[in-house]
Design brief:
alpha/beta; 15 strands; globular; 344 residues; eight-stranded mixed beta sheet; 12 helices; Rossmann fold; single chain; 2 domains; four-stranded antiparallel beta sheet
């Protein structure tokens, strides 16, 4: 998964294919790219998120924003525009692994000049907010589970005359221990462990001196993620706005993702000394943060995009928002109602 997504010049995120459909192509018959993210659907997403960002920035003396994986740069643009109307002009840093997405971001954000900067790795700990929208789902996962004898296994990839295919092997001690700690032995059950995302969560405490990190992604709490009926895992692929479950199709030309185990992410944050400050659905977060006020500013045709953002049948329920913080005492507006931390 790491190779087909990130190998220099060949991986999905390091080659030159168009990945995201731009906002102005949403109503066209043939969408460019492979998938659509919330910021591309409507400016209301970034502008509403900016309300929560502003609340955090107001509690910091020298705040800045750090966004991981900024997509087309549209979310950053919308956030900065709204923050300017609210009286904030923070430094906005972006850490982007994809060279072609970085180039697209630089075009989108050119009007902001030196206020936006691209970095190769997080610098010294700062005050402010970290944003990660659809980032953790693209981190390479381990495909693990139990064989028919109940032994912990990890799936690897081999090459045959017929192409790539799976081959199981005994799981390492770490994977086996982690797997058995999270679900009972279920012979034939397959799932994912995203140890890279958990390590990323733990590093937040090194990047922030004071502030909040907001993680927005599709996923579940552990009770849903490891439900006995979810016996084949959550690994999914996206190409030309078609979703399927074959990671061996068009390697390097399609996106491969796995849903996020938010219970594991919250536990990783807690282990590193971060406070878990809120957890809820994307729909509830946006409504708490003022989506309705943003909606009145939109053109009438954009209301369809808002429905996708909050509808339980679209992104509203599948996508979740997790907030973790360090040295900041604040009741975050995005979680003022329907905070689901108790479900983690």
């Amino acid at each position: 998964m790491a190779e087909v997504l990130y190998a220099p010049g060949l991986g999905y995120y390091s080659a030159g294919s168009i990945k995201l459909a731009a906002r102005n192509t949403q109503d066209q018959a043939g969408l460019a790219g492979d998938f659509v993210t919330a910021p591309e659907l409507s400016s209301a997403f970034g502008r509403t998120l900016a309300q929560q960002v502003a609340q955090v920035l107001s509690r910091c003396t020298d705040p800045k924003i750090l966004e991981f994986g900024a997509g087309s740069g549209q979310m950053a643009h919308d956030i900065l525009e709204e923050l300017r109307t609210l009286g904030f002009q923070p430094q906005y840093e972006i850490l982007e692994l994809s060279a072609d997405l970085k180039q697209r971001q630089q075009q989108t954000l050119a009007p902001w000049g030196a206020q936006v900067q691209w970095i190769d790795h997080p610098g010294p700990a700062f005050e402010g907010i970290i944003l990660a929208n659809e980032v953790l789902d693209a981190m390479p996962v381990h495909i693990v589970g139990f064989d028919q004898d109940g032994q912990a296994i990890e799936r690897g990839v081999i090459w045959t005359d017929d192409g790539f295919t799976w081959q199981s092997q005994p799981a390492s001690a770490l994977l086996a221990e982690t797997l058995k700690a999270r679900l009972p032995v279920l012979p034939g059950y397959i799932t994912e462990l995203n140890l890279a995302a958990e390590a990323w969560m733990q590093q937040i405490t090194e990047w922030l001196s004071t502030g909040v990190a907001l993680i927005i992604d599709y996923g579940f709490t552990a009770s849903e993620y490891f439900h006995p009926q979810r016996s084949t895992g959550t690994l999914m692929c996206h190409i030309q706005h078609t979703a399927h479950d074959n990671p061996f199709f068009a390697p390097g030309l399609q996106d491969i993702t796995a849903h996020v185990d938010f219970s594991a992410m919250a536990a990783a944050a807690d282990r590193s000394g971060l406070a878990v400050m809120g957890f809820t659905s994307q729909a509830r977060f946006l409504l708490n943060a003022g989506l309705a006020a943003q909606a009145v500013r939109l053109e009438r045709q954009d209301t369809r995009a808002l429905e996708k953002l909050v509808s339980e049948a679209e992104m509203g329920e599948l996508f979740k928002v997790l907030a973790v913080g360090k040295k900041i005492d604040l009741s975050l507006m995005g979680f003022s109602r329907s905070d689901r931390r108790h479900q983690l």
